[in-house]
Amino acid sequence: MAPSSPGRPQVRRLDPVLVDRIAAGEVVERPASAVKELVENAVDAGASSIAVTIAAGGRKLIRVVDDGGGMSADDLALAVERHATSKLPDGDLERIETLGFRGEALPSIGAVARLAITSRVPGAETGHVIVVDAGHKGPVRPAAGQPGTRIEVTDLFAATPARLKFLKSDRAEATAVGEILRRLAVAHPQIRFTLTGEGASSGLVFPAETGPGSWLRRLVAVLGPEFGQNSAPLSLEREAFALDGHVGLPTFHRAAATHVHFVVNGRPVRDRLLLSAVRGAYADVMASDRHPVLALALTCDPALVDVNVHPAKTEVRFRDPGLVRGLIVSAIHEALRREGGRSSGTVASRTLESLRPQQAPLSLPPAASRQTASLFARRDETAPPRPAGSGRPEAFARDGGWAPWDAPEPDQAPFEAPPAGTGFGEGRQAQFAGDLALPSADQRMAPPEAESGPTEQHPLGAARAQLHETYIVAQTWDGIVIVDQHAAHERLVYERLKRERDGGGIARQILLIPEVVDLDPVEADRLADAAEALQDLGLVLEPFGHGAVLVREVPSALAGGSLRALLTDVVDALTEGGADPLARRLDAVLSRMSCHGSIRAGRRLRPEEMNALLREMEATPFSGQCNHGRPTYVELKLSDVERLFGRR
């Protein structure tokens, strides 16, 4: 090759150590990346117990000890060489059945830190040790050690000081290590995992789980004790894919997606396709700014999934992504549908916290109705002001309405507390006999041994009162239920419209006189463009000049409402959908439309109307939350209420 001319760079081979350091940047981005690679190697080695120790967030020390198969002296020498692995016995990259390639991460870590590996094969008389310091490999020497492998990484990135500047605080790096270990623990419940060292994740212990229910026990250990009570199991197979898991109820959610776990053929992954499928499955039962809590395990032939999309192998690519997405959406929908209208127990916990007084008040504060509204995270309606009158709550009204309590007249005897221990039993209810009649016929829950089994038949109980013309109070056998009447009926109307659409078409009502609605020209054009699709939803309209549409038919469930408000919401739903598939945008349209056909806050209900609402909620899937993801009811057990009053 001719000498290079002045100013022209010369092509040359890089130093092997420098090559390893460059490659390390792809695999080892931070201490958590090194922990991931080392723990995955231990899993692939058949370990039943893996112990991780870190110092200074992993910068000063990472120690991983396992009781797996170990390595011989010859294997140990090759393990720190680039492109040497025990994971591809037949060299087939399309059928990867392990978590990684032993030898891929080890030389990368050894290039940027001091790496010491001590390993002993079970049954061998002695173990062996090798040290790689900043890319310089030492000899393999005999060493004492337990069967398995012990790896120590000290002074990570000491050979590349520039990388140290981009690390976060020790606590943040330790937290990232803990998150890596949690995801691996979810994927492998049969292995015991421990993490020790300073930081927020110090002291993590996940015992090995075996036998029936082992995975759910591991999920409860990782996701918290509330997950077991607020999740539903799922299992579904389709063609060559099998999906198993546990999904949280829609009202059991988090502000970030950190509690969403995916496992593909034993590998924890963070994949956009899977995340998109989960968000689609929860689209109309959870607020867009909230995230579910769940764990899904997908198994398939290794040839149907590519795990080499990302150097860290956290993303995957499926040969048939549409099939995988449909499988996940269908499985989650079916699991949530089986749960019916069940709401998360955490809603009751938050309610009890909000009701527990800092100091005992003598009367309800003026903001009581606003506090009640906050339990349901209401943002759209507020209770109407109480009508002017005597200045005290209304007694039972002659038109069928009622208030939940009343103040005694001057000539009435003061309210006497019932004997301790009666709770919501007959003794306490007798105090309200007289002027405060029950809102309906006596529908108190019968004892559990009754032949009719009312507890199972009517889990939402019998209506007892309506608060602020917005909230229904019902009594169950073992507690009380508070229902947000508008949110609950909005979900019922939405599910009814969806059933009608899927069952042959939404029932429509022809307007006696078609109504012209003036809109912004852009909004009118958007409605006109979607007229054919909207007709399938029961809304028949057509353009009527510049900036106006003519409405001829509306869904029967929405008849009588404001057409302008309805059309405005429909336009908003079409606009917000953006590039979403048409089917999803139409679901959003139905969701907006159902709000106009539901019982509004501030409407006084008759006893039979309230009980009919409760019965329909019990028979309707997803009735535990409204279309926006807010809870539709709060259930408090009698024991919880009694604790509020110091009875327990």
TrEMBL record:
Residue span, DNA mismatch repair protein S5 domain: 219-337
Keyword DNA damage part of the UniProt annotation: yes
SUPFAM superfamilies: ATPase domain of HSP90 chaperone/DNA topoisomerase II/histidine kinase (SSF55874), DNA mismatch repair protein MutL (SSF118116), Ribosomal protein S5 domain 2-like (SSF54211)
GO biological process: mismatch repair
Keywords: DNA damage, DNA repair
Xref: PROSITE patterns: DNA_MISMATCH_REPAIR_1
The organism's place on the tree of life at top rank: Bacteria
Annotated GO CC locations: mismatch repair complex
Domain (MutL C-terminal dimerisation): residue spans on this chain: 463-605
UniProt-annotated stretches for the region Disordered: 377-427
Single GO MF annotation: ATP-dependent DNA damage sensor activity
InterPro entries according to UniProt: DNA_mismatch_repair_CS, DNA_mismatch_repair_MutL, DNA_mismatch_S5_2-like, HATPase_C_sf, MutL/Mlh/PMS, MutL/Mlh/Pms-like, MutL_C, MutL_C_dimsub
Family statement drawn from the similarity comment of this UniProt entry: Belongs to the DNA mismatch repair MutL/HexB family.
Function, in words: This protein is involved in the repair of mismatches in DNA. It is required for dam-dependent methyl-directed DNA mismatch repair. May act as a 'molecular matchmaker', a protein that promotes the formation of a stable complex between two or more DNA-binding proteins in an ATP-dependent manner without itself being part of a final effector complex.
Protein's name according to its UniProt entry: DNA mismatch repair protein MutL
